User: Fold these one by one.
Assistant:
Number 1:
Amino acid sequence: MKVRWTGGVRRLAMAALAAAVLVPGAAHAQGKITGKVSLSGAAPTAPKLKMDADPVCAAAHPDGAAAEDLIVGSGGGVEYVFVYLKEGVKGTFPAKTDPAVIDQKGCLYGPRVVGLQVGQPLKFTNSDQTLHNVHGMPKVNAPWNFAMPKFVKQKENKDLTKPEVMIHVKCDVHPWMSGYVGVLEHPFFAVTDKDGNFTIEGVPPGEYTVEAWQEKLGAQTAKVKVDAGAPAKQDFTFKPS
Amino acid sequence: MSTRKPRNNALLALMLAVASFLSISAIVRTALGAEIVVAEEEQLRHGKVLYASYCSGCHGVNGDGQGPAAAMLIVKPRDFTSGLFKFRSTPNGTLPTDADLMRTITRGVNRTSMPEWSLLPERERMALVQYVKSFYPGFAESGPGRPIFIPAPPATLGSPESIARGRQLYEMLECGRCHGPNGLGDGPSAATLAPDSWGNPQKPFNFTKGALKSGAAPEDVYRTFMTGLNGTAMPSYADVFDEPDGENVKPGDAWNLVSYVLSLRTPSRPGTQVASEEGAAVNAAYRGDLARAGYTAPLPEPAQAGANKESKP
């Protein structure tokens, strides 16, 4: 049978090609990067936040809430560090359509740090019975500042169209509320858990520059080689600033 | 062969006609295009000259807000290179339209040193608009946001019922967190506001005192809380009113909030323009500012008293 190079066939072929490029190989061909981010020396004690300007916030934390700009857990592990592939990623990766979510709860951002892909929506939910304004202050993407009165339970920003590490997000009503959003062209990022551990999944084999970013400690990079199937390990240790 | 010639000739003639039509129209198009380009360049050249004499003293020759007078001013002149503009009919985070910039330049910014330039001919203000835009590449790249639709104010605007409903909305939407429970600018969050995006102190407006920065027509207030003021804490409430949930917020409620906000003004005349005595000594402030900074470029006389008086941010 002679295949005529019609529009339809061309589209099919393109789609197959795109699928081959966009969904690079099968799962078995991927590697991953795991590690731990820690702070050397004695863990600092986080100061208590003063929330009494808004009784709704204060009531959510009967024992007081601790500042979250540097959370050091057991074994010196640092929470909320954004770890991502900074250089070396090849190919294009379609953005997830389900949003990255930040909940405003007890007048804190949960989580304080998120990553998402260019074009992926960023959703803010409001679990509090009080007003928050969500004020994003990017340098590359378009800024935003919308009010979320207590009865407005969710709002999506779909305008994060350019890669940017990191975007500062804050609430002007509650000055201690501060968060960071990393926008990347690929899905290879992670945020450390309360023990400082992270895993970046599904990384195609290759050599990469990995960066660990923390709002107070700054950023560190490391060269990491990823092989198919075997997890690569990379720890980061920050010194107290 | 010979019988077919005329037809070929006819075809050729037709093709020639089409071709020459195309090329003529191409010529016309380039001519028009070139004219537009020339007009734009001319406008920018004109704008640059006007800007150098009228605006650079405050906004700086490079548009970075660092003119010689800037250090003396309480409310800092806008840094046009930041791409952040407060007074817009366009959604939060987007750039203003030409009409927005025209309005600001024509009216000035009340309570700040930004003069009104209503005495400059419209052509010159248009040239200034284009020149101001040239400081931020985003205007050429993505252009302004899409202006919001502001419906005509209802007949009930300013009525006691509308004001009462507006008061409920003011409480429900917690404007008072910043602007204070009674609109005095003294809400619990007022004292803790971080500096604005340009690093300068910011203060929620005291609705009972002084002129509104970008005008006190009902539409001005409507526009402000719908789109917010970029670079400041003042957020956009567009979502709340654009899709009223019917339970907390009902269609048309935005005008009730306008009624309430304007009713706080003294003298309490909702919907009226800025009270004139407020600005009786206007422009003196910015002239004083400029003189202190040794800036002597000519300024047009204000068209009307009542515009600009600088107060604390």
Number 2:
Amino acid sequence: MGENTIILRPEKLEVRGLVKRYGGGRRRPGTLAVDGVDITVRAGELVCIVGASGCGKSTLLNVVGGLEDATEGAAAIDGERVVGPGPDRGMVFQGYSLFPWRTVRENVAFGLEETRMPKADRGARVEALLEVMGLTAWADRLPKELSGGMRQRVAIARALAPEPDVLLLDEPFGALDTQTKRVMQDHLLDVWRRTGATILMVTHDVEEAVYLSSRIYVLTSHPGRVGAEVPVPFPDDRTPEIKRTDRFHAIRDEIQALLTGEVVME
Amino acid sequence: MIPRRTVFVRSDDRPGGVTPLEPVAEGAAHPAHTLDWRNSLAGRNAPTRGTRRHPLFRIRDELSAPWRVGLMIVGMLAPLALWLFMSTSSSTSLLVPSPAQTWEGARTLWHEGVLTGDVWASGRRILIGYAISMAIAVALGLLMGSFRSAESFFEAPIAFMRYIPATALVPLMLFWLGIDETPKIALIVIGSVFFNVLMVADVARNVPRELINAAYTLGAGRLRVLRRVILPHSVPGIIDVARINLAAAWAILVVAELLAADQGLAFRITRAQRFRQIDEMFALLIIFGIIGIVTDLSLRWLRNQSAPWARP
Ligand SMILES: Nc1ncnc2c1ncn2[C@@H]1O[C@H](COP(=O)(O)OP(=O)(O)OP(=O)(O)O)[C@@H](O)[C@H]1O
Ligand SMILES: [Mg+2]
């Protein structure tokens, strides 16, 4: 798919004029976490959000996921306003949120148990995901027995299992070492291309953002606003080789500069 | 003599200092005094960093089995010694039967053939009453811990009822329900259910928000979240609540049996009192204690079995 076809895709996920204030009362202003954010993700796009810690990235994702109400503005999927969570929007949480009483395998199977999928198919899908995530050997372990990186992989597998239309990923590779991260990134690209899912992903890793996404939103902090929207002009079927191109470095440095300026300002 | 080109070696000419890191030449033999250094560090007078207390005084540290068992045995023997002392010393005006006399008292009760009947009578009341109490507590508690609406609705009346001493309801219950089993079971329920409900609600409230959110995004509806997230996460907590409040159920049962019963452990105590058989009273008290410890340990075991994930 080339750059030009993107224009033809319908808008899948829209955030319009989103304002989110925490704990504001009559006297106290509360925390203005997000202040007027507009974001659009077209069907089948993979878009990343980068921004300093505390700039409202998780908040934004939670509103799209329907887990928190917007103070003003709204998020919409396929033109329908989000009022609550649903299996059409799979999420990977920053804190993993694994079910501690379920084994790795059972955690991954949770979403499928909520579908009408036949049991045998469910099992096959779970095993395949465990294999890809390198978790087969740990399938019968409880989350408390896993390292941070393993937990993160379980969380990703669990969100991928029901193959949702929209994936909301909150720093899904944050706790992984560089090598595992690369494998996971390529796996995510693979899943994305295969399922045609629409993905909105938060990351701290600028290089990761450039490598994965079609577009990048750079958020400014306090309050969180969209500071810049950077298109990434690489084709969807990209390979790790692009990381060595000048164009890649240019985009990466541009975003890095935007983020650095942000830090200096504070 | 091996040249002093070693890694991190405390050298004599630089007291207290550490020689800078220098690459050891390829293939060079490991310097002999590295070993000395290690040995000297292991020595008794070697300098140390940080403090390391005896396991007995460390917060949340594992204790070796001998210490653990030893302390448990001492903990059991100490009150026994006190008892022995009180029963033999003439300085106290209290009439305390000796352990041997108590044992005889227990044997007397056993030979009268009343003991098993009493244990069963009291145990049955507790079993039925407390099962009803926990059933109500789990249903209502999970509801209150999950829905703010249920919490708002039930909180005030339950708090009100909780402050009415169940013992104060004994006359009323006997008046309403007669003197057979029903009022005793009702009293056990009333005496424990309000505590149980509020504590189960607390357990349910402690289910992390993120787990509920995760279940929602995986397609679970509210009822499914209740059944598949809030309930399993609450199981160990619920068993703990049952374990902790069970003592309150026994307390209220005793009051009920003291007033109106013809069987049961507390009833037997009043009988012993009438005939001034202090040895039998002591034997019965100890039986209460034993039943308590056994149920406590069983519930702990059940909690650990049902929720290995919550084990520390
Ligand atoms: N539940 C809450 N109650 C009050 N304030 C909150 C709450 N959640 C987030 N905030 C505030 O909103 C702001 C944005 O938080 P958010 O978690 O969205 O940041 P983030 O961009 O995800 O940061 P990070 O990169 O560290 O994860 C922060 O200032 C935070 O203090
Ligand atoms: Mg965050």
Number 3:
Amino acid sequence: MPEQHEFGFHTRAIHAGARPEPVTGARAIPIFQTTSYVFEDADAAAAYFNLQEYGNTYSRIMNPTVAAFEERIANLEGGVGSVAFASGLAAQTAALFTMLQPGDHMLASSALYGGTLTQLKHLMRKLSVGLTFVDPDDVDGWKRALTPATKVLFGETIGNPAGNVLDIEALAELAHAHGAPLMVDNTFATPYLCRPIEWGADIVVHSATKFIGGHGTSIGGVVVDSGEFDWSNGRYQVVADPSPAYHGLSFHETFGIYGYLMKLRAETLRDLGAALSPFNAFLFMQGLETLPLRMARHVENARRVAEFLAGHPAVSSVRFAEQATSPHRELARKYLPNGAGAVFCFDLVGGRAAGKTFIEALTLFSHLANVGDAKSLVIHPASTTHRQLDDAELAAAGIGPGTIRLSVGIEDAVDLIWDLRQALGALR
Amino acid sequence: MTTQDDAAEVATIQRVLSYARNIAIVGLSSNPLRASFFVGFYLLRHGYRVFPVNPRESEVLGQRCYGSLADVPEPIDVVDVFRQGDAVPGIAREASAVGARALWLQYGVVSPEGVAVARDAALDVVEDRCIKIEHARYFGRMHWLGFNTGVVGARRAKALP
Ligand SMILES: Cc1ncc(COP(=O)(O)O)c(C=O)c1O
């Protein structure tokens, strides 16, 4: 037997979860485009449904192509496993739904993706779970907001769109002292730039829609578990106690470090039904093969674009965490040593009108509501996603009238700078 | 799987699972919701012979139950333990006395003394691991449920029964 060896990130991004298919030898991961699976015999069927044997039953709950994607992400994040979902928001819903019950309380960063803020407000109200938003930069503020019912703390590694960097280690310590897990949305960093589990996070979620795919073709999400959190600490009956939704099975006792994931799959995914399609999983695996190469290039281009913008007279500020003036520079150095991502905002001197003119003058940046594509993307929140808000309301959301959000792609940096320069020129 | 210790452990796990035919499960419960029952069920399904050792049961999973390892009338290859740590040194001595080749301690079964007894008797020892999960990781279908097996390679997976 060859000596054991620790494989590097690039190798695992290509290989993890995808050994050659044992029956046919197919080297690429096959797309198992099937709803269901023929059982060997009645005993096998019973064993699969009882979770006594790892088996395929129905693609709402598991699928071999989706599983290959799940294993690869879990491997890259350093978790014990993961469960994929039809979108990033579905993944977050499921992760929370699995651990919370009515009467619980959660803390969330106030600087999250807008869709997540809205989701949490509505979802938690409907589940009768208390929700407090806190300034992500103020660790003492998180501490003050804890209540005896607080069951989870949630933030984004790099906030969308404000670009704040989460102090993962400090918040994990705070959460654990309270007997609660820390859940982190690692969408903007990807496991190439930051692995929150290495800093103490317990659950990591992603919108795979963004950099994981990188091609802008597919919506998807995933929940990764570190396997480290003790769900039997007396505060998570919903995970630890015999489950009425699974004939009395105690997921944490029976499956140990895999208990939360088994419950997430066998109950939550089964019941909420937001399964990832095998075809999308296949496309995400193609994306992951080049994740480290793409991220290195995204970061390099983002740095060059940020530097160009910071030196331009039509630009009043650049909010990139690596910038010398950024309040998040130290946290970025600690948690994101290989780069603070490729999505950031900057502000135009000319306000709302300048924003509109600028966006319309760009020819290479795509004007759309997404991030994390290989293509460079741009949006002017004040005239699009946040256009119902007046200037005061925009300011409260950290968005100025002239704020522009860029997702810097992997084209030639000189071409991106050329496009930005000519569009800024249109403002004179 | 990064250190020399880990490399040795992986080799031990794969070797034990390959030579194992007859597995005694000490502390096997007849409660179908207990982890030990899941493990016994799985091993039987995968072609191993399972010998429950539990003085409080007469039959588990259709297999006759024995009061102690010494009562099992057939040679035992692996002794798999679902008991408190303090019971392990005695079990290790018995395992060696009946000629077992390996002592396997399930998740949370911790006994430095028991491990030392088994090692002194030249038994293979696996600690704080689940035999079902390790079988599924290297030779089974753990990868079908999105778990991180840690196994990376370009050869077709080898299957044990
Ligand atoms: C940081 C972050 N998290 C979650 C999501 C939601 O993901 P999805 O659109 O895949 O549901 C987004 C989408 O923009 C995002 O930017």
